[in-house]
């Protein structure tokens, strides 16, 4: 029965850390202060201080995670609102998504080879730019490790959301289509949450891309592994 | 009252996610149930099977908090202190570099495709105008 207060405490800790960090992010708006990163760091520090293992944290954490499913479904709403734009720009969108999905996988495979990353690790990061549940399945399918795949996915998501504004500025990417597809294909749902800051159109582009990348990526993953003899 | 509406609408979204998972398991698909649910809801909205009003408030509420729902998963990184080794550093470096390159390529390509499509459309409209005037 001790589990109930623990679960409740962990939920409170997560929500509080998120709200506090979201507030700081809003006030200073540096992309490094993105709440996923700062709140995660804060929670890890608190858990380490009180010596609470991740498994115990998840007794409460899983309740928050369980809202991920309906949230991904909810992305249908901005998509629906932008359905006319989608229909009118179908070809450039599909082209961009394909470039995004393949460049993410090919470059990470190449870099892993160049850096001499161990094979078991390399196979786990091939699907790093896909949304978590797909990445887990793809990683398992090609012989990687599911938990490491999640770590790769999280790093790609958080870092992509932090780096994207500077990259867009440097390369003068101003179009909502280009920005949305880049964020959605490299940084999945975390990138999509970031895309919301650029407006509804960028947000919808990113959600479309994330969904399409999940489908394209699950086919592309095994092909990339085969091409690079991993 | 508004809170009740939101909770009710989240339940509708949850049902879609659940149906997606059932479809995924039934056909043994690699695409996750939530993505199938997204496509399903989008189709239902377009075909007016589900009115937008039924999900609007719930969807806006969830999407505003989207990042919060990822935090429990990202906290899981704490189990991988071993990544603070040389091999771990290379692993992380590969992910970071690839993410930068892929954002740069995709952002530029997406913008290029959009401009190209726009140009073609303009030309089409121009020639339409010409033939009209001729």
Decide which structural class fits the backbone of chain B. Answer: mainly alpha
Report the strand count of chain A: 0
- Quote the distance from N terminus to C terminus of chain A: 48 Å
Q: Tell me the distance between the termini of chain B.
A: 63 Å
Say how many strands of chain B there are. Answer: 0
Gyration radius of chain B (Cα, Å) is 23 Å
Give unreliable regions of chain B as ranges.
Answer: none
- Count of the separate structural domains of chain A: 2
Order of helical and strand elements of chain A: HHHHHHHHHHHH
Portion of residues within helices of chain A:
over 70%
Helical fraction of chain B equals over 70%
SS-based class of chain A: mainly alpha
Strand content of chain B: under 5%
Indicate the radius of gyration of chain A in whole angstroms: 18 Å
Q: Could you give the topology of this structure?
A:
The complex is a heterodimer of chains A (230) and B (134).
Chain A: H1 3-28, H2 35-49, H3 54-65, H4 68-74, H5 76-81, H6 83-88, H7 90-115, H8 119-125, H9 132-142, H10 146-171, H11 176-195, H12 200-227
Chain B: H1 2-27, H2 33-46, H3 56-64, H4 71-75, H5 86-133
Helix pairs in contact in B: 1-2, 1-3
Verbal overview:
The complex is a heterodimer of chains A (230) and B (134). Chain A has 230 residues and is mainly alpha-helical. Chain A has two domains: 3-66, no CATH class; 74-227, no CATH class. Chain A has helices at 3-28, 35-49, 54-65, 68-74, 76-81, 83-88, 90-115, 119-125, 132-142, 146-171, 176-195, 200-227. The model of chain A has no long low-confidence stretch (mean pLDDT 90). With 134 residues, chain B is mainly alpha-helical. Chain B has five helices and no strands. Chain B has helices at 2-27, 33-46, 56-64, 71-75, 86-133. Helices cover 76% and strands 0% of the residues of chain B. Chain B folds into two domains: 1-77, no CATH class; 80-134. In chain B, helix 1 (2-27) packs across helix 2 and helix 1 (2-27) packs across helix 3 (56-64). The model of chain B has no long low-confidence stretch (mean pLDDT 88). The interface between A and B is large, with 106 and 75 residues.
